[in-house]
Amino acid sequence: MNNSHSESVLVTQELASILSNNPAVTLNIEFTSKVYETISDYRSQFLKNWHINKKDAALDIFRAMDELIRTSKSFKKSVISCRRGCSFCCRILINISEIEATILADYCQENGIEISKNYLEEQMRLDEKAFLSSKVSRCIFLKDHECSVYAVRPLACRRYYVKSDPQLCNARKFLGNQQVQRVTSFEMEMLLSAVIPTISQGQSRMSEMLMPYAL
Ligand code: SF4
After folding, report:
1. Alpha-carbon distance 41 to 36, whole Å?
2. Does residue 142 have its Cβ closer than 6 Å to ligand 1?
3. What is the pLDDT of residue 2?
4. Closest ligand 1 atom to Cα of 142
5. Residue 33 structural domain
6. What's the domain count of the chain?
7. How far is the CA of 128 from the centre of ligand 1 (A)?
8. How far apart are CA 38 and CA 116, in angstroms?
9. Quick check: CB of 157 below 6 Å from ligand 1?
10. Alpha carbon of 88 to those of 72, 91, 124: distances in Å?
11. Is the CB of 96 under 6 A from ligand 1?
12. pLDDT means per 10 residues in the chain (215 residues)?
């Protein structure tokens, strides 16, 4: 991109892919400048909030993402195949950051949800391959096929929507399957480009990040 903003603004892989796969967009310098300008504006606003209160700033982004899922054209146009009770994506390793761990721990404390130290220790002992086929691959927060911390679920869970057959998300059978088709939204990726470098700071495996809060 030949504009001053593109040199300083990091974008998500998904946004880079949307931009590069659309020659009409890539060649439109005015439009791409606007995209980078918008991301910079989002980022400045977000950082102001972040420096006042990290938790509130992150929760504001979670709410903004929920709103975009309700209103963004891409999500409206796409036939999202994710359904309540489908939980294949809650049986893979995910990373969370310090602020996400804090938000989850606070929510658990407020809602009487136990974070089991034994369960996390079992998860931490496994590498990715062993984890997927283990009896502890289920996310610690998945109860009866539903997320018990849905309101404050981390970014990794919040941005994962597919339009392909949900069965293809079964990592035990189809790990690395290229047929899983994610739903991405231009608006969502602009927002995430602005906040991920900060919200995702210091991220590591969920089991490891939650351990300080486990009983
Ligand atoms: S936090 Fe919720 S949505 Fe995310 S993996 Fe765990 S159960 Fe699934």
Report:
1. 9
2. yes
3. 37
4. 7
5. 4-213
6. 1
7. 17
8. 42
9. yes
10. 25, 6, 20
11. no
12. 56 88 79 92 97 98 94 81 92 96 98 98 94 95 96 95 91 78 90 96 96 96
